[in-house]
Design a protein that fits this description.
Blueprint lengths: L1 H8 L4 H13 L15 H16 L3 E4 L5 E5 L9 E6 L12 H16 L8 E6 L12 H6 L5 H6 L8 H9 L6 E2 L8 E7 L4 H5 L3 E7 L1 E10 L3 E2 L11 H15 L8 E3 L3 E4 L5 E2 L2 E10 L2 H15 L7 E10 L2 E2 L2 H13 L4 E6 L5 H4 L5 E6 L15 H19 L12
Parallel strand pairs: 1-5, 3-4, 3-6, 6-17, 7-16
Antiparallel strand pairs: 1-2, 2-4, 7-15, 7-17, 8-13, 8-14, 9-12, 10-13, 11-13
Helix pairs in contact: 2-4, 4-13, 9-10, 11-13
Bound molecules: (2S)-amino(hydroxy)ethanoic acid (HGY) and manganese (II) ion (2 copies).
């Protein structure tokens, strides 16, 4: 009864959660309310180091895998049993907000610390994961660390990915590692009993419905492309139009064709040209090379594939006498999260008297790859007007506290499960 009672009164420490939030918000602060921590850069490294210092102060064990994901572990009564894991990411958009990813990391740490504060033992170890390069803002693709960890992407391809200065993940990782102190080694794809990621919704639904918790049913499909168009540099003043091979005009023609195709009366398809570079990029030279990215999302695989299959026809063929090539560097179909884990989260929300709804995620997350390895789901909390990937991103401390308490209760249930009553995730 005492441990039952103990569990009932167990709640996270909101002051500590907010002090961690503010401490991280200082690292790479832009002065405009947001933060800029490109993966494996000095600011991201400082944030990862600070997280590890907090973990080492509680004598949790700290490990790293070959692609730079960090693992903070609180041991359980059965140390050999697969852990219950939670986590998210500390790297941000450039610039980004102070909640995307960061909230899931400090909420997860809060779970480990609260159990430690109250000397609550769990059967299974509990592991906090800090995924490397979730945003894909500096190094493509997004969710790099978890996709390599789960075997969806080769580590060679990931280590070779370069930023716009030509610095590779391999080089940046070695540099960052040297600042993190002593870390154990952690294998890729280690057995895991269940994974729950806490995250801001990054959309407007929970706030509009006046609800505190989102029990996440799954994540929509995402596919990303890089298009490169090659024309010919020429003098802006002397070159007649019929002699030009203008790579920017060619890109504009392709992009308007794609935008037309992306018109969706049901407003389900998400189509974004987020990055466009023009070379040589001087006012008086006809552009010789243009590169742009395409980010596509849809909840239905068939609809996503239909659009994917038209990309080659538009971006892979000569356009206005310019050569054009396109490659798909990320293709991740929609997934559904595990029913049992979702019911554990629902019960935890009910136990806390928290209003909740089930909803799918429009944003992608590392949980998508953990769902390949073990029963997985996510907990969303509302964010201000659904704003995200924007320095104005904001979540209320009361929602952060509620989400962390629901995470604590759900993890506690899963961490005391004996053999895996959770139906293994269908292949
Ligand atoms: O792109 C995404 O959905 C994630 O926020 N990186
Ligand atoms: Mn995120
Ligand atoms: Mn993000």
């Amino acid at each position: 009864v005492s441990s039952q009672l103990k569990t009932m009164e167990l709640s996270v420490d909101l002051d500590r959660l907010m002090s961690r939030h503010h401490a991280l918000a200082k690292i790479g602060a832009t002065g405009r309310g947001g933060v800029c921590r490109p993966a494996l850069g000095p600011e991201d490294t400082a944030a990862r180091r600070l997280l590890l210092d907090w973990a080492r102060a509680r004598s949790f064990s700290c490990a790293i895998d070959p692609i730079g994901n960090l693992f903070v572990r609180r041991n359980g009564g059965e140390p050999g049993w697969p852990p219950v894991s939670t986590g998210s990411h500390l790297d941000t958009q450039i610039p980004g907000g102070n909640y995307d990813g960061i909230y899931g990391v400090i909420a997860g740490l809060e779970v480990l610390e609260t159990l430690e504060d109250h000397d609550i033992s769990t059967r299974r170890p509990i592991e906090l994961v800090v995924w490397n390069n979730e945003e894909g803002a500096r190094f493509s693709p997004t969710t790099m660390g978890s996709s390599v960890y789960s075997g969806a992407t080769s580590i060679e391809a990931a280590l070779e990915s370069c930023d716009r200065e030509g610095i590779s993940v391999r080089k940046a990782l070695a540099e960052s590692l040297s600042k993190l102190g002593n870390l154990d080694q952690h294998a890729f794809g280690a057995p895991c009993h269940a994974y729950i990621e806490a995250h801001i919704e990054q959309g407007p639904v929970l706030e509009a419905e006046g609800l505190s918790i989102g029990v996440v049913t799954g994540i929509q499909g995402i596919s990303q492309f890089q298009t490169t168009i090659t024309g010919e540099a020429a003098h802006a003043g002397t070159t007649p139009r019929r002699r030009r091979r203008d790579a920017l005009l060619a890109a504009m023609s392709q992009i308007s064709g794609l935008a037309k195709l992306a018109e969706d009366p049901g407003d389900k398809l998400r189509f974004t040209i987020g990055k466009l570079t023009v070379l040589p990029g001087t006012p008086n030279t006809v552009p010789s090379e243009v590169a742009f990215t395409i980010d596509l999302r849809h909840p239905q695989r068939e609809a996503l594939d239909a659009f994917r299959n038209s990309i080659e026809r538009i971006c892979g063929t000569e356009t206005l006498s310019c050569k054009s090539k396109v490659n798909e560097f990320l293709n991740s179909p929609p997934i559904d999260f595990d029913a049992r884990v979702r019911s554990v989260i629902r019960d935890a929300a009910i136990g806390r008297g928290a209003s909740f709804m089930e909803l799918a995620s429009g944003a992608t997350h590392d949980a998508k790859y953990m769902a390949k390895l073990c029963p997985t789901s996510m907990i969303f909390i509302p964010c201000l007007s659904g704003i995200s990937h924007n320095e104005a991103e904001m979540a209320a401390p009361s929602d952060m506290e509620c989400g962390a308490n629901v995470l604590l209760d759900a993890i506690k249930v899963l961490a005391d499960e004996t053999a895996s009553p959770i139906a293994q995730v269908p292949a």
